């Protein structure tokens, strides 16, 4: 909450953490007749992501950036747009090829691997040693962007002006959302039903479709609440399950 944090910074004593206030807020939310809507009406699953990537399948600097941004955001479990805009080069740590890959006999190819150190996020503290892994195609796209754009320090994803010139300023969270919506429109889809949060819900939906366990998916997504993560996960499982297909 905003007010408890502001009160603490100003050195004042507040009562925002009082148990009675927390209980009252929970009861007020439950009593509300207004259903809680999702931040993105539609999830961006792997099939939709593939369409968006085709929309930026060019060799211009802006195409390289948007491809790397979309792949990085999705493959890192749909990082929040604030985390993507704030991503810095020093957070990227090369790993041994194939690190974290499944131990299956048919998985022979060693894929490039990269760790993203998260630092402070909505669900982790700055001193927490939290990270997520990128493996394969997202790593290649991210490295190609960094090399072509000459990113040697600071923000990874930066603004590009209308003439295709790279600026020093990092993207804002709002810009990340606008980039996604622009690519959605170029792909012939409706921007009104997609937002950057759709990458996060889409990642969890995709893990459920592929039979990846919820704990394993949460290890990558860094969700603290099983209930919150399971909302997206369970929706996909129900659609694929037999309970809803008793008569079709």
UniProtKB/TrEMBL annotation:
Q: Where on the tree of life does the source sit, at the highest rank?
A: Bacteria
Q: Does the keyword Repeat apply?
A: no
Q: Which UniProt keywords apply?
A: DNA recombination
Q: Which Pfam families match?
A: Phage_integrase
Quote the protein name from its UniProt record. Tyrosine-type recombinase/integrase
One GO term in the molecular function aspect is: DNA binding
User: Where does the record place the Tyr recombinase domain?
Assistant: 39-246
Q: Where are the transmembrane segments?
A: none
Xref: Gene3D superfamilies: Intergrase catalytic core (1.10.443.10)
**Cytoplasm among keywords:** no
Upper classification of the organism: Bacteria, Pseudomonadati, Pseudomonadota, Alphaproteobacteria, Hyphomicrobiales
Kindly list the biological process annotations in GO that this record carries: DNA integration; DNA recombination
């Amino acid at each position: 909450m905003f007010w408890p944090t502001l009160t603490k910074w100003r050195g004042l004593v507040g009562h925002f953490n009082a148990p009675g206030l927390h209980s009252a807020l929970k009861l007020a939310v439950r009593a509300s007749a207004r259903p809680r809507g999702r931040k993105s009406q539609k999830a961006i699953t792997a099939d939709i992501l593939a369409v968006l990537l085709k929309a930026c399948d060019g060799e211009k600097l802006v195409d390289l950036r948007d491809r790397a941004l979309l792949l990085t955001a999705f493959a890192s479990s749909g990082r929040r747009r604030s985390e993507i805009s704030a991503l810095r080069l020093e957070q990227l740590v090369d790993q041994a090829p194939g690190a974290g890959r499944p131990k299956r006999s048919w998985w022979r190819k060693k894929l490039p691997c990269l760790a993203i150190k998260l630092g402070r996020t909505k669900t982790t503290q700055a001193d927490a040693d939290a990270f997520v892994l990128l493996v394969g195609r997202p790593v290649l796209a991210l490295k190609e962007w960094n090399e072509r754009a000459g990113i040697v320090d600071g923000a990874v994803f930066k603004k590009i002006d209308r003439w295709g010139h790279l600026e020093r300023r990092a993207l804002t969270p709002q810009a990340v959302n606008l980039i996604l919506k622009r690519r959605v429109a170029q792909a012939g889809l409706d921007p009104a039903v997609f937002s950057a949060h759709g990458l996060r819900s889409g990642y969890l939906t995709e893990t459920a479709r592929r039979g990846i366990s919820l704990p394993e998916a949460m290890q990558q997504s860094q969700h603290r609440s099983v209930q919150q993560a399971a909302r997206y996960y369970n929706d996909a499982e129900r659609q694929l399950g037999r309970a809803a297909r008793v008569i079709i």
